[in-house]
């Protein structure tokens, strides 16, 4: 029976691949035809031809991308839910895959996992079968079908509670969960669980917060939701774009393959250090400084700092304009300033008004003075005189001292480097608080500076008037391109296959400016259609403020775990994080099943976290492995400090060797910050190229990381070194240890000088 079914499915699978090949051939033929077309004609028609070529190239790339695991499941519908009146036994079978396929008569052969009909594949249970008689998981390698697993829904066989707790497609799920990790995250499209699916398909509008313990699939859900929203709301999101924000560049590298494997490549991925175009940083301030810079009152400080750069002189200034001596009163500057301020435009933009008004007033004074001195001044001379004033060195100095155009970087760097100015802006701060900001003008910018730069850019406006004119022109051009693309699509009769937005992106002028994603990433004022935020528990109020600006429609998916919050500026609840921006208007969903970490490790990590005062939502781990959490006691190899570290590294090396003898999976060595250099250097010396250090070494079999660097990642084996050191190293060190202990998919070892550590130890 199973063999017969396998054979039957193999035939169907081969017909699906046949269709995939056909579509690829068709696209290749179209591409060849478009390329051969006479390149003559207007510039517009050449541009259209290139744009069509690009669309076919993208289509071919997309079809190649989905070749592996093209189809992963099917549903046998109840006869009552099938379109025809076939007998119950022969209820319709729907196949679910990474993309949708239709035959030449437009009959569906394969459903895209994101269409509404496919949701039963993820949601159906014996208790609520949703019109499904059975669900089948198809396991493939390349184009070969290896096995099928069926779940028959007969509600009489299961009670409700059992049904609710049951995992969907357990065999396929377990195979995915126990697979060795590669250092790159994979999609979970074949085994999305019901509670995850409901979140993925939740409506686009509004702010959705997903709270869940470590390993509950928050990152996976957030990325699949991005793919789902792009598919379902293509018209809106293709042009506005989707932004995915993660904690670090290494985390983005870890997740970057997931969306392309789901056929979506136009998403902007950015770390919190990359959210201000032109600045890229992973440096962080000392915790107290980061905490201060993350506070909302910094926004007011930046506003005050900008305002304080509009300075009315205290005394009358004497200037020279081509030999004519002018006395400029503070009042003249004040009046010009008031006019500019009344425009309510940002500093650099309003400066244009200031300069114009000041020049007019100076011109009037100059004319009056020349006339009083007996010269005749005609109205036709005003233009020259105005130009004399504008180019006069003294006038430029006068106007710049009153109102200097500023870049965000200059403003922020000055603020840190000029203690007197900072003190004048912060009369209520203590000297200790001010000292936290004090820094050399050339010191590198940090992740915590990024929101301050963004805030400064808001109050300063465009520094370069030319750039802002060019930006407006580009936007207008893009609008015209989309209209032209609509016409071209109608003419070519390819409606529905190509969106005007995608075609327009290939037009020569637009293409020269980059894809939608590239343009969005380089434009600070881009308004994204949806923003996904991962590890969101770490964000400071100032970082939230920046993100809300990037998503003015307030359509957000926010995922995180409050118990894992370790950054000094992190809020203590979602309520507290979001209240200043959206009040109570957010929906909260929870994920409760831990897919990553085996039960014995989850329990140990949760116990340790609670003993150290964290409030954790206990999760249900789906599996247990045979390896208990191991405590490895290190022995100092001598009396000196260096020998002490050697002793620790001996124990780590032995544990790595043990782990690597079990399987060839990835190993992470997670160490307190202070020990990282010594441990990493010694391990590199002993194990050579097998050891990678920090964010950049994740492709190596063994990675040495701090707890912060390990955030969001996972490894087959994890060795946590001196766990108490991680707890003690920072105010929220317990969260750091909780993160570290929940990274393994198979084994956890704790290496410490303290012998026989209790698994639920607490650090006082
Ligand atoms: N439905 C699923 N099918 C297969 N694998 C899954 C599923 N859900 C989650 N996983 C896997 O579980 C692991 C943990 O998922 P993920 O990294 O998304 O969790 P997380 O909640 O973001 O964790 P953390 O808070 O620790 O960063 C990943 O390997 C992911 O692929």
TrEMBL record:
Keyword list (alphabetical) reads: ATP-binding, Helicase, Hydrolase, Nucleotide-binding
In which residues is ATP bound? 212-219
Q: Does the keyword Hydrolase apply?
A: yes
Task: Give the CC-aspect GO terms.
Answer: cytosol
Domain UvrD-like helicase ATP-binding, chain residue ranges per copy: 191-598
Keyword Ligase included in the entry's annotation: no
Q: Note the PANTHER family from the entry.
A: DNA 3'-5' HELICASE (PTHR11070:SF45), UVRD / RECB / PCRA DNA HELICASE FAMILY MEMBER (PTHR11070)
Q: Identify this protein by name.
A: DNA helicase IV
Organism field: Compostimonas suwonensis
- From which lineage does this chain's organism come? Bacteria, Bacillati, Actinomycetota, Actinomycetes, Micrococcales
